[in-house]
Amino acid sequence: MSTPLVTVFIPVYNAQNYIESSLNSIINQSYKKLDILVIDDGSSDNTLEILKAFRSQDNRIRILENENNKGIPYTRNRGLNNAKGEYLAVMDADDIAFTDRIKEQVSFMEIYKNIDVVGCNFIELGKKLFYKKKSKFYDPEELKIRLLFASPIANPSSMIRMSTIKYNNIKYDENYFVAQDYDFWFKISKVGNFAIVPKFLMKYRVDHNNISNQTRKNKALARRKVIQEIHTKKLNYYGFKLDEKAYREFLFFFDDNNNINNYKIDISELASKMIRINENNNVFAKDKFKRVLFYSFSIKIGNLNIPLMQKIFIYFALLNRTKFINIKELLRIIIKHYYFKLN
């Protein structure tokens, strides 16, 4: 296998509690040909001092500093502009890469030249528990379909082919203070393909006071507007011209609210409309579209804050409309319902 240079990009902001373990996980990668680019976005804690101590011990580390807190989309674009590697591996300042993460993803990208972004399975770390997050889909077309409903790739699990970014001049939208990665993936999906290495290669931390959780709490309405704008762009791009009622229902059902308690939507009708449009317009392979759509709707049914029997009724209505049989998803909905009731 050839050994192309990989830029590992880590944007940081007030990350003194996590940056040491994150950087150590990159420095100790089995793949050694790394350009470790860290951009500090105006931290006011000891993050910068920690970074400089690491740089004094490893000359692969480069530190750039924003003159003040510019926000994550600006910082991500600065990372794209300053990357030296053939590939860009994205990390967050509080995540941990397994020793072979870079090696496995480089090997995959070197074999599959038609892939422009590759993710991986990961372990999600919460305050009390951890979950193994195994991708449901690995096929490039299925991942594009899944992107219509939600992001199929965790941003800090990704490796990006930089030639695709440079040739197509793809940037993060700096107007999106959240979900800029979701929009970024959509832009890449217009010109390239996605895949996921079917291995667990990192630990992804959630449920603490990072930037995304703060914005989720403090700017919920603005966040919802951003998600709706991105969904609208995708629906229009792929020609899913829904009537006004179905369009509003899609935006409501597939925003990132995981605690919907005002359920008044016949999602089985919405799903049926989308299946018909896909078949009439030959947008995606019929069987793949139906499989991904059914999974995407099932996930959201599980998030409804309604009685279990109502969830089951909605689920079987979806089964009847889509003619797609998958009882495993029903079991997942039931288990998830009782788990969150007990916790």
UniProtKB/TrEMBL annotation:
Residues 7-146 form the Glycosyltransferase 2-like domain. The keyword Hydrolase does not apply. InterPro entries: Glyco_trans_2-like, Glycosyltransf_2, Nucleotide-diphossugar_trans. Keywords: Glycosyltransferase, Transferase. Pfam families: Glycos_transf_2. PANTHER family: GLYCOSYLTRANSFERASE, GLYCOSYLTRANSFERASE EPSE-RELATED. Belongs to the glycosyltransferase 2 family. This is Glycosyltransferase. It comes from Lentibacillus halophilus.
